[in-house]
Amino acid sequence: MTRRYDLDWVRTLAFGLLVFYHVGMYYVSWDWHVKSPDAGTALEPLMLLSAPWRLSLLFLVSGAATAFMLERRPQGFVGNRSWRLLLPLAFGMLVIVPPQSYYEVVEKLPGGYHDGYLAFWSRYLQGDGSFCRDGDCLRVPTWNHLWFLPYLWAYTMTLWAVLKLAGRAMTTIGGRLTRWFAGPAVLVVPALALGVARMLLAGRFESTHALFDDWYNHAQYLPVFLLGFWLARADAVWDAILRWRWLALAVAAATYLVLVAYFGRFDEANPPPEWLRMLQRLVWGANQWLSIAAILGFARRLVKGDSPALRYLAPAVYPVYILHQTVIVVLAHNLQPLAIPPLLEGPLLVLATFAICLGGYELIRRIPLLRPLFGLKRKAHATPVPAPGGVRPESDLA
């Protein structure tokens, strides 16, 4: 089993990108939990740079990691994955996420909310649905940014069931796909599939992150997760991704410029013609996959081995992921009275979020009771030792 340090780095940096993206959500015109008084459209083209692909990339790496986990430790797989994903989800919904909902109510509820956090938390835990504005009510308890965990668990259980029922058929199909995807099909087919899925479903099913009614997101994330599982051992396909990385990067850059032009020209008040909307969705799918292919190809080319930074950051990803959005929301809301210019406040939020989350990780990893609540194994190793293959032992979020 070969260590995949390139996927370790891709996973680590992809989750780190979430901090930048969610800080950006505070400043753009798109709806979010709290909003800057200076929110506007200036940052939106930069947000579009990763919007099509950042989550799909995480699910793809998750699929590859799942393949390595199953190969390394098949016994007790279902129980272990459920424990490592669902326990942090439950803890997060009860303890970590509520401050996000609290400040959302403080900022958005007509007349504000003045009863304090503990009173709100009590109502949150009781599932109080009376926090409403213009008929739109906040649903609590909620998982907010932790939606990735139940989705990853559901996809993992689906994969495990399919392997149990049709493992031999999946192996046969995987072999045929490997031969096919060893050429340009590795760029064309996933891009076309994601574009068609967006054409058919994006307009019919709003992105809810509620698991049971989120059909467009399932149509893009589940296949990408399965693709990652299959790619884990498809060496010929990795060679093709490496070989075509420059082409993937060039087309991804071109499709990004198309998307920036499209969203800069059209909005709800000035909608595009339907044929152009459908074409944009195909372009979105192309950008989604070709950006991922370029990232994977360049990571394969550039990452040659382990490093002290990777040994430290890889296990920190899960706790930082759980903490980061709540830290951003709390900091952003409480910085508003200082009226710091956005060009200074934004970088300050990013740096403070990383500092607080990594400080939280330093505390969490030293307290045995907290470790499983943030997705870490119960016992820490004195010196982190990579597993024989796949991703690192404590990087089970991926």
Short description:
This protein has 398 residues and is mainly α. It has helices at 5-25, 44-48, 54-72, 77-96, 98-108, 117-125, 148-181, 185-201, 215-231, 235-243, 245-265, 274-302, 308-335, 342-364; strands at residues 132-133, 136-137. GO terms for molecular function: acyltransferase activity.
Can you put this structure into words, describing what you see?
- The chain is mainly α and 398 residues long.
- It has one domain (5-124, 147-374).
- It has helices at residues 5-25, 44-48, 54-72, 77-96, 98-108, 117-125, 148-181, 185-201, 215-231, 235-243, 245-265, 274-302, 308-335, 342-364; strands at residues 132-133, 136-137.
- Helix 1 (5-25) crosses helix 12 and helix 5 packs across helix 6.
- It is globular, with a radius of gyration of 21 Å.
- The two termini are 18 Å apart.
- This is Acyltransferase family protein.
Computed CA radius of gyration, to the nearest angstrom: 21 Å
* Average of pLDDT: 93
| Bulk shape | globular
Count of helix runs: 14
What string gives the helices and strands in order? HHHHHHEEHHHHHHHH
The portion of residues forming beta strands comes to under 5%
Our count of domains comes out at 1
- Structure classification: mainly alpha
Roughly how much helix do the residues carry, as a percent range?
Answer: 55-70%
Strand order of the largest sheet: 1-2
Give the end-to-end Cα distance, rounded to a whole number of Å. Answer: 18 Å
Major beta sheet, specifics?
Answer: 2 strands, antiparallel
Number of strands: 2
Low-pLDDT sequence parts: none
Protein name: Acyltransferase family protein
Transmembrane segments: 12-30, 50-70, 82-103, 148-167, 179-203, 215-232, 244-264, 284-303, 315-335, 347-364
InterPro entries: Acyl_transf_3_dom, Glucan_succinyl_AcylTrfase
Domain Acyltransferase: 5-358
